[in-house]
Amino acid sequence: MRCAARSTLCSHSETCTSAPSTPWSTHNKLMAILCSNFSDLLYLDEDNMPGRDPSYLFSTPEFRSTGAVFWPDMYSIAPESSIWRVMGVPYVERWAQESGQLLVDKSRTWRQLLLAGFLNQRQDFYYTMVNGDKDIFQFSWLATRAPFHMVSWPPAFAGVIMPDSGEFCGNSFVQHDTVGLPLFVHAVGAKDFHADEYRFRTQWEALKLYSPAVSLPQQAQREDGGCLDAVDTHPHAGRRSEVVAFPAVFGNMEPLLKSLRRNATLPCTNHFCFATH
Question: CA 13 to CA 34: how far, in whole Å?
Answer without folding.
Answer: 11
